[in-house]
Amino acid sequence: SPQLEIVELSPSFYAMLQEPVQSVEGVAIAQVCWEFFGLEATLEKILRGELADFRLPDVNRIQPDGTLHYFDFVVMPLHIQQPGRGLLVIVEDVTREGELDQAMVQDRNRLRLVQDQLARANEELKRLSQLKSVFLSMAAHDLRTPLTAIQGYVQLSELGLESGAREE
Closest by alpha carbon to 23, among 35, 42, 7, 44? Predict the structure, then answer.
């Protein structure tokens, strides 16, 4: 109504309410739907024709059976040519879409976590690869020194054997 009170509603609207009630006709919309609490000035702008409509997407409500449901609320003038006569509130149950959005957000968060773990593992592998390169460089250097000495002794021995063979 122009006084922002509920005049008529569908039976499925009662199912959306968090607390079972018999009748809400004549009750202010903000008392029945907490989503409109504090938005009375916006609703009055729609009544005066200053706003075409107002949307509240993905409002979540816990139902009497304990399940979480998502709803989209759209408020528009009851009569477009005569906006001051009242408001039409359309409530759509978008629970399935809300659940899919939540699942997508959770999947995205898990993906980010895995990406972070992979980045840390990649950094650790780079660090280990650098350590391996340093180790191999040091090991190669440390092996070259004794091998050079052995090679020198072998060459000396060969020279000594050659000169001993010539003397005979």
Answer: 7
